[in-house]
Structures are given as C-alpha cells and as structure tokens.
Design a protein that fits this description.
The chain is an alpha/beta fold. Helices cover about 40% and strands about 20% of the residues. It has one domain: P-loop containing nucleotide triphosphate hydrolases (Rossmann fold), CATH 3.40.50.300. It has helices at about 15-30, 45-50, 55-65, 75-85, 105-120, 135-140, 155-170, 195-205, 220-225, 240-250; strands at about 5-10, 35-40, 85-90, 90-95, 125-130, 145, 150-155, 175, 180-185, 210-215. It is globular, with a radius of gyration of 18 Å.
Length: about 250
C-alpha cells in the first residue's frame, strides 16, 4: 500500500504551496511514483505545477450517471474515464476532484474520489492529498490511515490557534494518523517574540509538534505570477531549502 501524506489547515494558509514543494521533494528524492490529489473544489495545485486540467473526478462521476457504451461494463468505463482524468508527468500523476454536485454538496464527489484513489492506489509509492480547509473533508474521503499530516498555519495568533484546533479534531475522526506536525507558512524574518511565543504555546499544550517555519518568499510569488511550475525552482532558493529540511525531518527516515 502507498503511504498517504495529507495537508490540513484553514483556508489561505498555503496548503497548496506546501503540497507543490513536497511533490518537488518526493520527485527529487526519487520517492516515486506519486499520485497528487487536489481534493479542494477550488482546485489550483495544477496552476502551481503549470498543468492544464482536462477532466475532473466530478465530471467522471457525472458521465457515469449517463449512458454507458454498450460494449463496456460500468467498471471498464470508469477505469477508462479515470485514466483520462489523470494528468501524467515524470514521477507523478495529478488527479483533480473539481466542483461538487451542488451548492455545499461534497459527499458524493468525495465518495467517488475515495473509490478512484482505492482503484489507483497500488500504482503509487505515495499519495499526496491537498485538502480543503478543515479536517472533515479527509474523513468523508474514507481515508483509513494517514502516514503524515502537515497542519499548515499562517503567521498569526488566530492561525496558530486554528491549527491547534484542527489537530485536536483528528482524535474523533475514524482515521489513523501516524504522525503529524505544524508548519507555519509565510513567516516574517526574523520571527517576532510574540509569534514565537504563540507557536511554542500551541506546541507545548497540544500533541502537535513543530515541523518547521517557512519564510515569505519573493521567488514563490514570481513563479506563481509568471505561471512557472514550482517544480522548476532552484534547490538553493531559501524557501525550498527550508521546506526540504522540514520534509527531511518528517520523511527522511523512509
């Protein structure tokens, strides 16, 4: 079975940025093949990888509700459509969930995404899930076990508190989480004493160890504005070096 890595955190903290940097890490460390799953209905991981989305899992599900070609079983048709939805590249494939069936309705799309991941899982060494805000989404995806959970926060007191609460929500979920850590993203340099105190307080009073702190990065802003893939960032860019150090700490023993 592949190892599952997932992102969690409130909206706007940089989960997708961290997912793209982690994908770069896994590819360069030859920890491949990887299935990268953009499980946020507001999909944009493909943009950070400079990839165009053709078919989403939501669209595959809608197709399966229609007429199936007479010479194919439903399972055969699903397999064909899922492979059409895969965006393939060297070392990884990308799968995008897309929009839900209706306003606020994610359950059916999540269930189908879970079925698709089960169907594809044996082909990959890692599954990387870029999750939407919160934790409930991961639960609805029917993930039985998460090997590594990165809880991402922005550099604010409210962000740190939200990350701590999200970590505490992992307890009631029927998901085995083998390891988890806090990553504070877009932090100013140097770190203020007040922010450092908030981080230390959250770590000391919870079961969420500090994985690391990523600085704000002009290089990341440039890549995004110009539409260039984060996978093409030079390894000596400071934010890449610090991200890789975080991933070494979390995954290096593997």
């Amino acid at each position: 079975m592949p190892k599952v890595i997932a992102m969690a955190g409130k909206g706007g903290t940089g989960k997708t940025t961290l997912s793209a940097l982690l994908l770069k890490y896994l590819i360069e460390k030859k920890m491949t093949p990887v299935l990268a799953v953009d499980a946020d209905s507001n999909a944009n991981l493909n943009e950070l990888l400079d990839k165009k989305v053709g078919i989403t899992i939501g669209e595959v599900r809608k197709d399966l509700k229609g007429d199936i070609p007479p010479n194919m079983s439903r399972d055969q048709y699903m397999e064909m459509k899922v492979h059409q939805a895969l965006i393939e590249d060297s070392g990884y494939d990308l799968l995008v969930m897309g929009q839900p069936d209706g306003p606020g309705c994610y359950c059916a799309a999540n269930q189908y995404l879970a079925m698709t991941m089960d169907h594809l899982a044996d082909n990959y060494q890692y599954i990387l899930v870029d999750n939407e805000a919160g934790m409930e989404h991961l639960s609805r995806m029917n993930l039985r076990s998460i090997d590594h959970l990165f809880v991402v926060s922005d550099p604010s007191a409210r962000g740190i508190l939200t990350a701590r609460r999200i970590s505490e929500l992992t307890g009631p979920l029927a998901i085995e989480i083998k390891s988890k850590c806090l990553v504070v993203n877009r932090a100013p340099e140097p770190l203020s004493d007040e922010l450092a105190a908030k981080i230390n307080e959250a770590v000391a009073e919870s079961d969420l160890p500090l994985g690391g702190i990523l600085p704000a990065s002009n290089e990341l802003i440039h890549q995004e504005i110009t539409g260039q893939s984060y996978l093409k960032l030079a390894d000596n860019v400071p934010v890449v070096e610090k991200a890789f150090a975080i991933f070494d700490k979390a995954l290096g023993a593997e």
